[in-house]
Amino acid sequence: MINKKRIKNFSYKPTGVEWEYVNLRNISLLQISIWARGLNNPGFYPPLRFHFGNYIGVGVPSEGNHGIFDRKLMERVLKTMQKDIDCTDNFALKLRKRAEFIYSKITKASRSLNVNLEKLSNKNIIKLYQKFKEAMIFSPVILMPMYAVDGCLDEKYHPVKFLKKKIKKEEMGRVLAILSTTTYKTVAFLERESILKIAIRIRKNKIRSIRALEKSRLDKIIEKHILDFQWMHSEYLSETLEKKIYLEEMIKLSKKYPEEELKKMRANAKKALNDRKKLLDEIDFSQR
Q1: What is the pLDDT of residues 255-272, one digit of tens each?
Q2: Average confidence (pLDDT) over 176-191
Q3: Count of domains forming the chain
Q4: Domain residues for 228?
Q5: Both 78 and 148 in a single domain?
Q6: How far is CA 74 from CA 55, 59, 83, 136, 156, in A?
Q7: Alpha carbon 130 to chain centroid distance?
Q8: Are 237 and 194 in contact (CB under 8 A)?
């Protein structure tokens, strides 16, 4: 039996390495074995150097993978990232361009797996797997954004030091919250937007029951919604929702004026971006 408490208190320290327990992800050891290789690839360079080789994954059946990192190496990586942020002109635009390229490779490789494998030969299945594997190990796509944001908000580095000279202490929390607003629609936003758009169509077509919904033209659209977003529940919430759950939620939303919620959600997102742009213009980070 695996002692979960012992995993979280992991403190093994061989010469030169200080291991530190960091997180738990609902992911198999097979997945982590592919993904972890990407940690040692400089996929986001240029403009951002983010790669390291020391990682331990401990798989726990029905729970997921416990991630254990080299603490000193991670600290060095964060300092290197901050140096790249401080010293690279148009850093955000260059990183965005690079990120879009990397995510497009992964998206393309992932969607290629959406086929009936029973109709493929073993040779073709292996080819699909190899392409997916190559895309996944190209870069540490999951950790990079998380640690990049952490680095930007660290008081030891340039962005926060710069802000302290211009912003009152009591305003710092609000300012950092506005500046960290994502310029993309988050996956959670896209999922909610998608389900609300379907609910609007259900309301427009006056569909009242699950049976009627399954027989309608909207069924294919709902299937696509599930295909696009079901991973959010299985990856982060450790559960796979049955189609019936989605249908019940959509029927329920269709009775609560989904048009108004969608309109309000989009308006709030637009306002958040406008507030961010206005604040950036006022602060002017180009003054180093």
Answers
A1: 999 999 999 999 999 999
A2: 87
A3: 2
A4: 187-256
A5: yes
A6: 10, 22, 14, 21, 15
A7: 23
A8: no
